[in-house]
Amino acid sequence: MLSVKTTTMLFCAVFLTTALGCASTRMDEGSGQYVDDSVITTKVKTAIFNEPGLRVSDVKVHTFKGVVQLSGFVSSRDDVKDAVRVAMAVSGVKAVSDEMRLK
User: Fold this and answer.
1) What is the pLDDT of residue 87?
2) Other CB atoms within 10 A of residue 37 CB
3) Which domains does the chain have, with CATH numbers?
4) How far apart are CA 72 and CA 103, in angstroms?
5) Rounded CA gap, 90 and 16, in Å?
6) Is residue 79 classed exposed, middle or buried when 0-12, 13-18 and 19+ CB atoms within 10 A define those classes?
7) In whole angstroms, what is the distance from residue 95 CA to residue 93 CA?
8) Cα distance between residue 70 and residue 19, in whole Å
9) DSSP the chain
10) CB atoms within 10 A of CB 23
């Protein structure tokens, strides 16, 4: 009888530790969120690269909990607007933070 209780308690402790260890917090991402953000980052980079007429040479893309941050240097204000527009059109993007600067 004691070993059943001990085994049950041990199982519950391991389960709770695992569940809470993979959860995200306000400042940190869980493992699932990190994978989702990596996919969004890749999609945004691809979309910006494939956009005809968009001349971006040094744009960096970072994603945290679905919010995309675009930083780096662009040639014109139109490129800034187009990059933000393209990023917002990607599925999974909740918001876009524009930190791009003109050359």
Assistant:
1) 95
2) 19
3) 31-102 (3.30.1340.30)
4) 9
5) 35
6) buried
7) 6
8) 32
9) -HHHHHHHHHHHHHHHHHHHHT---SSS--HHHHHHHHHHHHHHHHHHHH-TT--EEEEEEEEETTEEEEEEEES-HHHHHHHHHHHHTSTT--EEEEEEEE-
10) 13
In this prediction the pTM is 0.67
Average pLDDT over residues 79-92: 94
Note the pLDDT tens digit of each residue in 70-84.
999 888 899 999 999
Return the exposure string of 5-16: e unless at least 16 CB atoms fall within 10 Å of the residue's CB, then b.
Answer: eeeeeeeeeeee
* Alpha carbon distance 37, 72 (integer Å): 19
Q: What pLDDT is recorded for position 10? A: 67
Q: How far apart are CA 67 and CA 38, in angstroms?
A: 12
Contact criterion met (CB below 8 Å) for 56 and 76: no
